[in-house]
Amino acid sequence: MAAPMTEADIAPLYECLGRALDPNPAVGKPAEEGLATLEARPGFCTCLAAIIANRSEAVHDVRWLACVYFKNTINRQWSSRHNWRSGTKTGLSAEEKAGLRVRVLQLIREDTQQIAIQVALLIAKIARFDYPREWPNLFGDLLGQLATADVLLNQRIYLVLHRVLKELSTKRLNHDQKAFAEVTSQLFTPLWSQWQADTQIMFQGIPAMLTPSASVDPAELMAVCERWRFCLKALCSLVCFGFGSDHKTLQDVPLVPQVLPALLGTLRTLLPSWVHVQDESHPLHAVICKGCLKLMKAILAINIHHPWSCRHPDVLPPLLEFTFNHVCRPWEAVGSSPEGPQFDALTIQCLILLQNVRTWMKEQAPEEDSFGQTQPGSPLMGAKRFDEVQRLTTLRHEVAPLLSACFSEERVLMLAQILVSQYFPLSASDLEEWASGPEEYYHEQDTLSWKDSRRPCAEQLFVLLVQNHREQMVACVRSWLEWISSTAGSVDPGTLRTREALYNALGLASFDMLEVIDFNTWFHGSLVPELSSADAARQPLRRRAAWVVGQFFSASSGSNVSKVTDEMRPQAYTLLIRLLEEDAVVQLAAVDALRALVDDWSFYEEGFKDHLAPCLQKLFSLMHTTYELDSHMQVLGLVSIIMDRMGDRIKPFTAGILQVMSTSWQQSEGQSQLRMLLVQVMHKMVVAMGVDCVAAYPMLLPLLEYCTDITQPEELNLMEDGLLLWHETLKQVPQADPRLLQLFTNLPAILERSFEHLQTCLFIVRSYIMLAGPPFLQQHGAAVAGLLLGLIGEVKERCMTMIPPVICLILQFFPTEGTALLQPAMHKLLVLIFAGQESDMVVASCTGVFARVLLHCGAPVLMQLAAASMADPAAMAVFPAECRADPSGLALLMCYLDVWLDKADSLCTTEARKLAALALCKLLATGAPQVLDRLLPILSMCVSVIFETETDGTTCPEGYSYWVTRSAGGEEEEEEGTGSGEGARSQQMHAHDPVNSLRVSAVLRETLHSVTAVPHFQAALAQVDPSVLQQLKQCMGEGALPAQLSTARPDGR
């Protein structure tokens, strides 16, 4: 254990903190590393606390950094942890923590705001760990210090209370929430009283300070306002989290009717002062803006956590009236004019509150229980559930009249009209941003959170109104369509802005109003002329019209009501492709609209083929003219979808696509997201090009080399897509290329690091074998053997079942060379079979390897493998005892045969069962007495396979492919059996595979004829069940069987 730090270490620690602040990395980096090593030493936090407390001598920046290190050390060292490697405990001792809890309270009175905030945060971190068990008197000590007349200390204590309560409110265990409820009962009354007192001081001081002859001390008023704000934040935490949410409990929170009216009244009183402090240099500007905004956020937070408790007649109606009026006439509450300054941040909070109030009633509707019963009194409904439904019904009945009064039909239509006319139109600042940076403006609008801006927030509320008041909104929507039609030729800027806002509204309502809007008429009457216009002043309309087209095509595709006809698509394609020549905002809007049309259930390739060339050409041009990462992602995403939908029709454009991709790859260094998309696009292009993908080698091969190189900085992001592209390339190319063969050297390193991509890697190995054959094994055979040997026994069941098919493929193509090459792997498989730790499915799949050896090389080679395994002393402990005395391996082979026959039912594919039957016939043909002793299970296996594969007179079921692989989910996936590339190679492999060309009945007949003369055969035949013989005669015919079997009596003799 490291030596504790003492007072003598304070000065060196102070110097180290100072060096850590040095901007020179050569100085700062070693200092940071030194601090990291000191963190675990006892006394480190005590020394930091001493530096923080040294206000007279220590530099401000060093004290601040000491606070940060103190806070971060609490997260890592405050809770004791046991180090299992060293057998020791890490973390601060109980004595040091007790001392620190006392010292941090002495740091509260801090002159510097930045350090005071850090001190409050570190106290909150300690409280999270120690309150209430180790620090039960925390809040008592804090409240006790409020008795002093020190204004700064009082302000800092409320800052600490706010931070501590905020930290404790995030704990979610039951006992932590009960502790917080107790804190609420202890703190609410003093905090509420202090907040009310400070509110009265503000009501008197702020108007007096706004007068020319102000007699108020600004510093004292500012301190009161700061304390008021921290107190308000603490009260918000207490009310929101000191009680269970009435969403779940359905119980009233008693503080809500007390707190919300006071907060709303304070907000109404402060708001008129806002218009007088527009100058940011005014001392009250920040106070009033932050204060009003925090009041509204507190009201919203309480409404979100306790919506049912807000239903009191003195709470909900005034709150809804205030928010509704502020949204409709935001200038009135602040004493401004429609053209004057607007308090947008407060308006956004009002919009959010209206959405929340309008949605929580719907969300709290009684849901069906697990038996689908919703009727009170149902015999399947429990008593508790019945009480909840009754209580919820009562609450809904109480709040329904209040909501109906606010959201009456007249007020809903008025609100919708105001949202569209006041909040939807583009402002002058929007147009300036558009003109100065089109790309930046588009992506800012596209990615902006709806809670951070007026227009997106208003759009969310509008959609909610359309969904919940659809019948009332129908007349409104029709009147908008008529107005749009009547102002088609207008060039008035105000009219154009209104048209753009209405397009936005109708696009947002597209799904809910699809049956109401005659889109066909609107498309040809308004949208087509709008999209065809070349007037620069109508660019916003063209951008919005393109978006509307995409919205309605998407809505029509996902609805039972189709308002989009196939005749509209060619004209829409033409108009949207033409928009790709305008400025970046319109271009990117057209890209989004085209994506909606192409990535659609109703998309047909034939209808788009004439538009493919101009679309791709303009998209390539757009890639060169844009420079934002998001723009390139958007364009490439559309190119990817077009390639996916159009298939091999994109072949004539591959050269252009490759050129664009090459340029984008070079320009996207460090932008892994864009490079991932480029790799995915290349994957689709390889699929579309088929065997012609060799033309893409100049870019494709370096791309594969980079993506599959584990030393590259972006390999974690590109590896998965790179491996899939690699596999697809191997499947499509007609012949091996030396550079493609050399690429295999990356694969072993990938699997040495992890087995995350094991399935794809094994598919790659299989494709290499089928593609290159002898040259591949000659160059990489040892690496493949080592790779397979390292995987056997080291992976889980699903992965283990993927390994034997690869070994079988090597044995099928190269029986002699493959057997010698893979002998260590097969020895390990044999040990695995007898170890008894693998599942039946794994053991059954492993038997397929030895079945291939039998089928292609014969029983002697299998005997040699068994004998070689007997020579391994480490394996002898795993093999059965009766095998250890036979060094020839025959006894081991018979034990293996018993396991094989026992696990035969676990063979899950027809190919595997047929392979096993043919191999057993090979083994039976040796005539060995030990094999004949197992004649019954061998015949049973063969008979079942004959019935499965030859009942219709063919060697296998029609249309069945024996070469199957397993997907990631475990389902069987049939390989491509037609076409060129790997599909053609698979067909050729199937044609030459004995499993497909041989009939089990013919091989069995020949085998039985060859062993009838063996002396032990008659004795073995006597042990065969008569029913098996009867089935054998049924499937093969009595004339095809040897005389001994044809004349066998029903009793087997």
TrEMBL record:
GO cellular component: cytosol; nuclear envelope
InterPro entries: ARM-like (IPR011989), ARM-type_fold (IPR016024), Importin-beta_N (IPR001494), TPR_IPO7/11-like (IPR058669)
Pfam families, A to Z: IBN_N (PF03810), TPR_IPO11 (PF25758)
Keywords associated with the record: Nucleus, Transport
A Gene Ontology BP annotation from the UniProt entry: protein import into nucleus
Region (Disordered): 968-992
Gene3D superfamilies the UniProt entry points to: Leucine-rich Repeat Variant
Importin N-terminal domain sequence ranges: 31-110
GO molecular-function terms, A-Z: small GTPase binding
SMART domains per the UniProt record, alphabetical: IBN_N
Subcellular location: Nucleus
Family classification: Belongs to the importin beta family.
Protein name: Importin N-terminal domain-containing protein
